[in-house]
Amino acid sequence: MATDVRAHRLFLRPGGKGLALRKDRKRRAFGPRQVLVLLALQAVFFLALREAYLFLITWDELVVRKVDVVCAKPELKAALDAHFAGARLGNILLCDLDALRARVRRLAWVEDAGVRKAFPSRLVVTVAVRTPFLVLERGGGLWLADASGHVLEPVFDTGEYGLPVVSDEAGFATDAFGKWEAAARCYNALPQDEKARLAGLRCGDFGTLELAFKDDPVRVVVGPGDPAADLARFRARRAGWERLFGPLARVHMGFDGRTFVRPAEPAGDGVPAPDKGD
Q: What is d(CA 129, CA 58) in angstroms, rounded to the nearest whole number?
């Protein structure tokens, strides 16, 4: 059956472009009855939405009944479990997660915390625990602290944690944060075997640190620039100094190009031996 090509050009002018089709568009005006119907439908919709909302926030099935705590520190997890066991957190839809997270983060051992809803009636609290770093001596007591200097808990026996004690000649009365940072940098710079032998770091003026070691009476003062290199130089030259001066009490390595050596006091002699430069 042949197709009339001209049928496809019904709306084309010869040699021209297609003509635009015109449609009669009539605006439909709503009458008073239609407007009232629309308003009534809107009212019904919002009323149903309100009733659904009131039902959900008062529904017993959405009341928080359990809080799961994910925490690597057993003591902290037990404390949080006990706290949430007696807490009334209400409807899960109305539970303020930011406020709950802020409450958990106020605990000393908590570095960060996350809280999420697990419908229909459970919350999950995930806790990131701070890591003990050094023991801080301040205010007449000992305190366990993390790398930032945040105090975790009091320490009654330093052997319980096996960490060095950081102290200050002036009790951290000035520049406490700067001195803590200097002690932390020094401790991190030391080799692992030296960390294991270290008993304490005493902060001094101008960034120097006096290192005390377990089962070793000699106090070694290192500078803030390269404490590990200062300590290595002391280890390398200690035998020679002891041959010259006898047993040592204190060696100051914190001066550029010079070392001050204080020999140990002879038994029964109350007069301290003077420092000797090298």
A: 36
Ranges for all domains in the chain classified under CATH 3.40.50.11690: 134-277
Region 196-206: mean pLDDT is 93
- Position 270 scores a pLDDT of 54
Q: Which CATH superfamily is domain 134-277 in?
A: Cell division protein FtsQ/DivIB (3.40.50.11690)
Judge residue 245's burial from the number of C-beta atoms within 10 Å of its C-beta, 0-12 exposed, 13-18 middle, 19 or more buried: middle
CATH superfamily of domain region 60-129: membrane protein fhac (3.10.20.310)
Asked whether the bond before 120 is cis by omega within 30 degrees of 0, the reply is: yes
Q: In the chain, where does the domain assigned CATH 3.10.20.310 lie?
A: 60-129
Query: How many angstroms separate the CA atoms of 90 and 256, rounded?
Result: 66
| Whether the predicted pLDDT of 47 surpasses 60 | yes
CA 172, 110, 156, 249: dihedral to nearest 10 degrees? -40
pLDDT value at position 23?
A: 55
Measured distance CA(211)–CA(249) in Å, rounded? 12
Question: What SS3 class is residue 14?
Answer: coil
Question: Which regions of 71-140 does DSSP assign to beta strands (E)?
Answer: 110-118, 122-129, 134-138
pLDDT digits (tens, 9 = 90+) for 54-74: 888 999 999 999 999 999 999
Half-sphere exposure of 118 (CA within 13 A, CB side): 12
What one-character-per-residue DSSP string does 188-249 give?
A: HHS-HHHHHHEEEEEE-GGG-EEEEETTEEEEEEE-SS-HHHHHHHHHHHHHHHHHHH-SEE
